[in-house]
Amino acid sequence: MASKRASISDMAKELNVSVSTISRALSNHSSISEATKKKVWKLAQDLNYQPNHLAAALRKGKSNLLGVIVPHIDGHFFSSVMHGIETVASKAGFNVLICQSNEDVTHERKNIETLINAQVEGILVSLARTTRDFKHFEKVRKREIPLVFFDRVLEGQDVNAVVIDDREGGYLTTKHLIAQGCQRIAHFAGPQHLNIYKNRRQGYLDALREHDLPINEDLIFYCDMTLEDGIVGMKHLLQLPEVPDAVFSASDFSIVGAMQVLKAQHLRVPEDMALVGFSNESFTSLTEPMLTSVDQRCEQMGQSAVRLFLELVEEKSTKFSPRRIVLQPDLIIRDSSIREKVGV
Predict the structure, then answer these.
(1) Cα angle at 45 between 40 and 51, to 5 degrees?
(2) What is the pLDDT of residues 118-131, one digit of tens each?
(3) Phi and psi of 281, rounded to 5°?
(4) How many other C-beta atoms can be found within 10 angstroms of the C-beta atom of residue 224?
(5) Distance between CA 181 and CA 294 in Å, rounded?
(6) What is the mean pLDDT of the chain?
(7) Of 5, 12, 104, 159, whose Cβ has the fewest other Cβ atoms within 10 Å?
(8) What distances in angstroms separate CA 76 from CA 59, 117, 269, 279, 293, one per listed residue?
(9) What are the start-end ranges of the H helices in the chain?
(10) CB 173, CB 187: distance < 8 Å
(11) Does the global pTM surpass 0.90?
């Protein structure tokens, strides 16, 4: 039995027939006799022939490939979104091609080129942190490839998108901290050109205004939402003349960094400072104390993004009319924000 992967041309030479005869025999075409089909199938097995489904699909004008670009695949959020994407895409007959931008717009541009060259039938994107313009997505639109954004979207762009109600998530977390008796609530805010961080900050401000609490820009620390940023941010807050009694972070990663600093300073969570994150990463239930966080319905987000893509394919409309699906956040309250003296 041959170890080399054979082609249709190899089989045609072996049986002294045309390539089209081999192709039709392999697809069980009625124009080919049963005797010839049996010969072809036996030879295919002997030569270890594996059909190139992508090439066949492209000949028919369809690749059945759905391209996905994510900032990174590590962590709970994007891996869960991908699970949702692959579940629905697979049922619809699509294979998923995943690219990582690694939070770099240059990589993101290369990802777009890769997916276009692979002739994908649609692209789902969650933007890199450093993406500030839409230019590299224009070529996707020009080629009329359905384009759906999820989670991260550039502010001010009319695009098809599936997002969580980040403003509501920021509002719920801040309102919860106020209900626990917190009066001086700090916020770790991400890059404001991205919808998620801008809206989470806005929700934080909404809750402060609603409860007549002052808005103090000294308590808002802008960063890239990494664990290291959380360490720097907490050190900054602890140096203020008046230290905050709570921190709402737009990311779980940075709030873990903040927690490390508090522990090193022998400050108690939540008694000395209550902490709340965002995304409900898997590690939030493993910290001590466990972290309150906002669940983003990641799997549902992935599923909704594919369904929106399928609607766009089905519609085949030349007129662009952006659609936005907004999912509702869920505040998961854990020990890091519950002050027993005040009650929940």
Answers:
(1) 80
(2) 899 999 999 999 99
(3) -60, 155
(4) 15
(5) 20
(6) 90
(7) 5
(8) 38, 30, 24, 8, 13
(9) 8-15, 19-26, 34-46, 53-59, 76-91, 105-117, 135-142, 166-179, 195-210, 227-238, 252-264, 298-315
(10) no
(11) no
